[in-house]
Design a protein that fits this description.
The protein has helices at residues 17-25, 27-48, 56-81, 96-112. With 113 residues, it is an all-alpha fold. Helix 2 (27-48) runs antiparallel to helix 3 and helix 3 packs antiparallel against helix 4 (96-112). The chain starts with 16 loop residues before the first helix and ends with a helix.
Length: 113
């Protein structure tokens, strides 16, 4: 009688160097776009349409864009905050403290937005 449930030996292969680069650096262009978008909204509300800040809605939008501005910067910085020597991560050049600080700031700003 054959055993109908066969055990599978699942081994996970580490990502290739190309995949590691993609994982590490793909978010950076999007973070830069987000940074400039938030900068423009802040500029627009403060310099061009200051009268709109009388409404609560526009003040909230302004505050959220300040948080997004910082979050974009932290997101672009994140691959470099990973502790040096982390296996399977290209570009890791930080320390445990930089990783902890980046994670804390990311979580706090994400909750703000």
């Amino acid at each position: 009688s054959q055993n109908t449930t066969k055990e599978r030996n699942l081994t996970v292969m580490p990502p290739t160097i190309t995949q590691q680069r993609a994982i590490a650096f793909a978010p950076i262009p999007f973070a830069i776009i987000s940074f400039f978008s938030s900068s423009y909204v802040i500029y627009y509300l403060i310099c061009k349409e200051r009268h709109k800040l009388k409404r609560l809605y526009h003040r909230l939008v302004l505050a959220m864009n300040f948080a997004l501005l910082l979050l974009s910067f932290v997101s672009a910085w994140s691959p470099f905050a990973v502790p040096e020597g982390t296996p399977n991560f290209v570009g890791a050049s930080g320390t445990i403290n930089t990783c902890t600080a980046q994670g804390f700031i990311s979580v706090m700003l994400t909750m703000t937005v």
